[in-house]
Amino acid sequence: MTDIELRKAVLTVRITNFAGDLDPADVAEMLDTNGIAASDREAETIAYEVNCVRRSVRSALQAALVAL
Fold first, then answer.
1. Is 17 a residue whose pLDDT tops 60?
2. Is the pLDDT of residue 40 over 90?
3. What integer pLDDT is reported at residue 14 of this predicted model?
4. Which of 6, 13, 30, 36 has the smallest CB count inside 10 Å?
């Protein structure tokens, strides 16, 4: 998978599912549904990247709510 394909896969997963943390099996299934092939290692990397972004967004939103 090229860097551009990896970035496309990460964006696909971000757009497809917003509930909770993802595991690599969820990622692989979402990518397969969207016609993107990924190895187990790539699915793990994508799940990690997406989950990190989600946690950052959740933390920022929680901080904003506390500030209100």
1. no
2. yes
3. 64
4. 6
Q: Is the pTM of this model over 0.70?
A: no
Rounded distance, CA 49 to CA 54, Å?
A: 9
- 29 in the Ramachandran plot: left (φ > 0), alpha (ψ -120 to 50) or beta? alpha
Amino acid at 60: A
Query: Using an 8 Å Cβ cutoff, are 22 and 13 in contact?
Result: yes
Q: Is 35 left (phi over 0), alpha (psi -120 to 50) or beta?
A: left
Provide the angle, in degrees to the nearest 10, between the axes of the packed helices 40-67 and 24-33: 110
Average pLDDT of the segment spanning 32-55: 88
